[in-house]
Amino acid sequence: MADAPSTPLRPACDPATELDARFRAAIHAVAGRDADPAIRASGNAKFGDYQMNAAMALAKELGKNPRELADAILKATDLAGIASKCEVAGPGFINITLERAVLESSLASLAASSTFGVPPATDPHAVVIDLCGVNVAKQMHVGHLRATIIGDSLARVFERLGRKVWRENHLGDWGLPIAMTLAKLIREKRDFARLTLDDLNAAYRGAQKETATDDLDAAREFRCGPHRLAELELQYEPARAAMEDAKKTLIRLQSGDAEIVRLWERLIEVTMEQVYDAARTLHCKLGAENNRGESFFRDRLAGVVDAFAKSGVAKSDRGAMVVPFADRERPLLIQKSDGGFLYATTDLAAVRFRTFELDGDLVVYVVDARQRDHFKDVFDAARLVGWSKTKDGTEATLVHLGFGAVLGADKKPLKTRSGENFTLKDLLDEACERGAAEVMRRAADPNAPTHGLAESELRAIGAAVGIAAVKYADLSGDLTKDYVFDLDRMVAFEGDTGPYLQYAHARIASILSKSGETAEAIARAPFALAEPAERALALHILRYPQMVLDVGRSLETNRVGLYLRTLAELFNAFYQSCPVLKADDAAVRLTRLRLCAVARAVLADGLSLYGIVAPERM
RNA sequence: GCGCGCGUAGCUCAAUUGGAUAGAGCAUCGGUCUUCGGAACCGACGGUUGGGGGUUCGAAUCCCUCCGCGCGCGCCA
Question: Could you tell me the residue range of the domain that residue A57 belongs to?
Answer without folding.
Answer: 15-98
